Design the sequence.
């Protein structure tokens, strides 16, 4: 047989094999794309249906909505009492303010004192975070009776009231490291330790974690079903 003819035949066969392989790969890719496009809407619908039909998730969702509703109602009740913001009160209103709420944090300040302005900044940040505690301030110059009655000698002076009774106080920055650059978190931590602010309850954290885990379980279950159907 002519060597050139043999070589040409082998070359043609190799080229044909390459074309055949390319054709097979192209066909596989087209089929895969068609399958993905046709299955995506169905898969998404199945995922949503399974999430909505999960009794455990529905109960957790309902419980969470009820808890959030109660929390909103509680916050609104506190706001009607003047909670949720850092407010200025006069000497005449002071007694009523500290006796109408369970916990009250009151800053006696002087408008010209730099450290009083620092304390104002931090208390203003904390007030909306801790709606269950009332945050107020009193101009010491305009409240001589209570400055004397409460034996306030140094400013800033933050008095801590529980049920209308002064149970503790922060004098200057003694409890905050004595320096001006303390953080709001530091002040918050001190007030929590003194019982004036509350941490987020552990059961609320557990409830959130359980709610999120239930969603993840439902999603994983849907993915497994999709994998089995493939």
Sequence:
């Amino acid at each position: 047989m002519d060597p050139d003819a043999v070589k040409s035949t082998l070359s043609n066969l190799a080229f044909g094999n390459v074309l055949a392989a390319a054709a097979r790969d192209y066909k596989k890719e087209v089929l895969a794309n068609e399958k993905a496009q046709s299955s995506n809407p169905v898969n998404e619908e199945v995922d949503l249906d399974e999430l909505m039909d999960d009794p455990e998730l529905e109960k957790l969702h309902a419980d969470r909505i009820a808890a959030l509703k109660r929390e909103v109602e509680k916050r609104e009740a506190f706001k009607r009492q003047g909670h949720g913001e850092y407010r200025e009160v006069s000497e005449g209103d002071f007694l009523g303010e500290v006796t109408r709420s369970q916990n009250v944090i009151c800053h006696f300040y002087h408008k010209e004192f730099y450290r009083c302005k620092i304390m104002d900044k931090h208390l203003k940040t904390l007030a909306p975070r801790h709606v269950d505690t009332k945050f107020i301030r009193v101009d010491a110059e305009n409240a001589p009776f209570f400055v004397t009655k409460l034996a306030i000698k140094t400013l800033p002076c933050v008095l801590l009231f529980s049920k209308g009774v002064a149970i503790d106080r922060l004098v200057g920055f003694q409890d905050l490291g004595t320096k001006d650059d303390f953080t709001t978190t530091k002040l918050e931590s001190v007030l929590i330790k003194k019982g004036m602010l509350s941490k987020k309850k552990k059961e609320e954290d557990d409830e959130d974690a359980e709610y999120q885990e239930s969603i993840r379980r439902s999603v994983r279950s849907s993915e497994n079903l999709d994998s089995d159907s493939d």
The first helix runs from residue 3 to 53. Strands lie at 86-88, 103-109, 134-139, 157-162, 165-171. The chain is about 60% helix and 15% strand. The domain at 84-194 is CATH 3.40.30.10 (Glutaredoxin).
